[in-house]
Specification:
The longest helix is centred in the middle third of the chain and has 15 residues. The strands form four sheets. Strands 1-2-3-6 form a four-stranded antiparallel beta sheet, with no helix packed on it. By secondary structure, it is of the alpha+beta class. The protein has six helices and eleven strands. It folds into two domains: about 150 residues, no CATH class; about 70 residues, no CATH class.
């Protein structure tokens, strides 16, 4: 499954707002919701990189953001892409000239103890420049960061995006839609299907008219609903 888009979702029932869920969407529009665990896992962001022009750039291949305010994070399609974003940042022009101490202050200003954690995990001299680390030392450095940021798996819920397979018409107007749900056909009213479309649960687009009414149209290149009359 390849995720192409992601966004924040509401926290699970009883959880504080800081435990936001992350909603991932694949190429078919199906949704996977990640809840619980740690931010790093929920966002496929092992360095917990905050949302920024760097972490959200096209080169870093982020697919969205999640969280709120100062705690808004970049979301990546998988661990490997998120890990690459961390490594490239540490090797880049901003971090590589810094000492490990300076780098960790920049990385997490609210946590002055961060460098001590890194030194304890790696045994590296905090006054060493990031660019002076050999491959083995640099690996120990980023591994220490990822371990500190914590990658704990939570719960995933998969929600299939349903397809309209037929319609009923009444006096020339579509009144009911047949929805393919988990292999079963279910007839629903127009209003019920509009609500599903607004929740991204169905392959259809809600059109808002100037008089306040709404109707559905197929997604781009999809079959016209009036060609599905049963």
């Amino acid at each position: 499954m390849v995720f192409v888009k992601a966004k924040s979702g509401p926290p699970n029932c009883g959880d504080p707002e800081s435990l936001f869920t992350v909603q991932y969407f694949d190429e078919e529009g199906n949704m996977t919701i990640r809840g619980g665990g740690t931010v790093a896992w929920r966002c496929n962001n092992p360095g917990n990189l905050r949302a920024s022009s760097y972490s959200k750039s096209a080169k870093r291949r982020a697919i969205g953001t999640a969280g709120y305010g100062e705690n808004e994070y970049a979301v990546y399609p998988d661990y490997e892409t998120g890990h690459e974003a961390l490594v490239v940042m540490l090797k880049g022009g901003i971090y590589s000239p810094l000492s490990l101490r300076e780098a960790m202050i920049r990385y997490d200003k609210p946590n002055p103890n961060y460098i001590n954690i890194i030194v304890d995990k790696t045994g590296l001299n905090p006054e060493r420049k990031v660019k002076s680390l050999n491959d083995q030392e640099f690996k120990a450095f980023w591994q220490a960061i990822e371990t500190t940021e914590k990658w704990k798996v939570g719960k995933e819920d998969f929600i299939e995006k349903w397809v309209i397979t037929g319609v009923h018409m009444k006096q020339g107007v579509i009144s009911e839609y047949c929805i393919r749900q988990n292999g079963n056909d279910v007839w629903m009213s127009k209003q019920e299907v509009i609500i599903l479309a607004q929740e991204w649960r169905i392959h259809a687009i809600v059109v808002h008219c100037s008089n306040g009414t709404m109707y559905l149209r197929p997604e781009y290149h999809a079959k016209r609903f009036r060609e599905m009359v049963c």
